[in-house]
């Protein structure tokens, strides 16, 4: 039988490209040919790399030279990507068809539901690759089903009020995605999610591949009506999953630059001693918050590796200079503009991750057995932080003051709790070890995620014949 062709389409942001690219690599292992499409500057960056055999890169238009950067008019950007993306992706698929390459399935990431509409119009099966926990998909499902008002108004009269949705842990207003409040700067993603659920309704057999695993979210994976969810995570390079493929060491799609000297620096530090700090690829801390972070880090005896991204990479160092205690920070720790995060989290010297709780960061940390200080900023990060603290008990979540700042003393409290000798810290570290083992179990050949992906692909193969 001729090898199948798949198209994987990713929204052009690091947190969506990374898991989608890992999925593409898994698909290659089945002998398929995979075209990986993303937009603009992310595509140009990736097109310069040397993809594994069978994988090729293609692009669709997002109408932007710069791509998704802080400060961009997000609403305009999203409107452009829907319109131009639909047109250009359609052209890409039609051109492939004319050249004799019919895609057996189009995989697409969160917030680009229009890909499913393009696929449908060309009678090609499509499936969503959900890059957040299943719990989040369920919350959206309930929101659009009949709980919209209840979720929006949660905590308005009583901040401690909690909502009990079937199959999910209790949720307070602090735990639901910030997208539900219209004044949130990312509220534009809500209409896109609405389109996604409309797509599910219109599909005879909607299937979603979720970057999670069965043992991590057994009940949330079963919640939503007619949709079948397949837990296929963790989608991280396989060299970090007990060396299934020792050469597969990077996501292969860094959209930011960094050097590698931090690994030598980590090599000099004792086991479990280093605090790693990163806020992902989009969030930017205010200067006031950075000063408090510095205060918190300097108050412990631990060395730290802190990623302070510079969004204009030519100006590396620009943001760092604004910190008042730079000299002291550089004596005790290391500040880098970007790093290979999974490599850092896998390093024996790393004992704690202060994270913005983006799902990739959270899941990578859990898979590497690194306990967390969850420091959510917006969106799904609040829910992820709640899961880390309450459900999986692999970390602690920071509290903000009345001005929305997490103070240095609070950061110190959380760090001491996670890396300190107390009973709570020990339990957190024990749990982190347990989840690391379970994540690897799920990912290995014959593990639940491997079986789920194979089961899904068998369905697709049967439909293609
Ligand atoms: N990342 C990285 N180096 C860094 C910071 C982040 O490689 O210095 C990667 C990280 O491993 C993760 C992704 O960027 O895969 C960030 O995704 P996440 O969902 O955590 O956050 P987002 O950037 O979407 O807010």
Short structural summary:
GO terms for molecular function: UDP-glucosyltransferase activity. With 465 residues, this protein is of the alpha/beta class. It is 41% helix and 14% strand.
Characterization of the model:
This is Glycosyltransferase. It comes from Eucalyptus globulus. Its EC number is 2.4.1.-. GO terms for molecular function: UDP-glucosyltransferase activity. The chain is α/β, with parallel strands linked by helices. It is built from 15 helices and 13 strands. It has a 7-stranded parallel β-sheet, with helices on both faces. A 6-stranded parallel β-sheet has the order 10-9-8-11-12-13, sandwiched between helices. Strand 2 (about 35-40), helix 2 (about 40-45) and strand 3 (about 55-60) form a beta-alpha-beta unit. It is globular. It starts with a strand and ends with a helix. The model is unreliable at about 315-320 (pLDDT under 50). Uridine-5'-diphosphate binds next to helix 1, helix 10 and helix 11.
